[in-house]
Amino acid sequence: MACLTFTAILIALFWVSLLLLLQLTTTNATKVSHDGRAITIDGQRRLLISGSIHYPRSTTKMWPDLIKKAKDGGVDAIETYVFWNAHEPFRRQYDFSGNLDLIRFIKTIQDHGLYAVLRIGPYVCAEWNYGGFPLWLHNMRGIDLLRTADTVYMNEMQNFTGMIVDMVKQEKLFASQGGPIILAQVENEYGNVMKPYGDAAKAYVDWFKSWGGSDPMRTAEDLAYAVARFFQLGGTFQNYYMVLYITIMN
Ligand SMILES: *[C@@H]1O[C@H](CO)[C@@H](O)[C@H](O)[C@H]1NC(C)=O
């Protein structure tokens, strides 16, 4: 009887410690969400200033200093693209060495107490050769139109994107795991090419949008309203990236 009670207490203790452990891991996690006005981090609306540092464009030795300078300049987050053709120069042969060490780069951001924004693409534009598409992808048998609902393309794109997400998850670098990555993005400025690609574009977007759960799209009207409010509240400088391009298109 005493023995049984003792076992029961032990089991109870085990559950209590397990619960404590779970609580510890969940308090470590950062909850990132959004409401009608802003991105929220642990329930607080945040105005986030992010600075881009593209890791392959500098050496590993430069990263701490670059990130520190950005932090001293007042940013909350460091944003980077992921460069597919650099990481997978030959199909299923990967390179994450030297200045391609994405995990080390994100950990360096974390060491500096900043958030990270990961734009996986894997089409990234980014003033980078072929926007990050590997040449082997372009030359694949049966591939038709990149960045659309082309099954050959989608298979390769999902494979690389999935691998990056897995790598980052394994290192517990997402905010939900206690890591610094508050936002991750698939594709890049897709609105620009959506119209000419037509139905194949719509099917493609519907496909990858379902990966993350909620719909992250923000309408132009909503954005314009946010900009108007920014000025109303004393904002003084705002930039429409590549506005000339839009003007020409119209
Ligand atoms: C990518 O494809 C390879 C086969 O070519 C497969 O072994 C691997 O699991 C795939 N990775 C992902 C993340 O889908």
Automatic annotation (TrEMBL):
GO molecular function, one term: beta-galactosidase activity
Protein name: beta-galactosidase
EC number annotated for this UniProt entry: 3.2.1.23
Annotated keywords: Glycosidase, Hydrolase, Signal
Coiled coil region boundaries: none
The keyword Hydrolase is assigned to this record: yes
Species, as recorded: Cynara cardunculus var. scolymus (Globe artichoke)
Transmembrane parts of this sequence: none
Signal found in the keyword field: yes
InterPro entries in the cross-refs: GH, Gly_Hdrlase_35_cat, Glyco_hydro_35_CS, Glycoside_Hdrlase_35
Sequence similarity: Belongs to the glycosyl hydrolase 35 family.
Reaction equations catalysed: Hydrolysis of terminal non-reducing beta-D-galactose residues in beta-D-galactosides
The Glycoside hydrolase 35 catalytic domain, residue ranges: 39-202
PROSITE patterns from the UniProt entry: GLYCOSYL_HYDROL_F35
Signal peptide range: 1-29
Annotated GO biological process: carbohydrate metabolic process
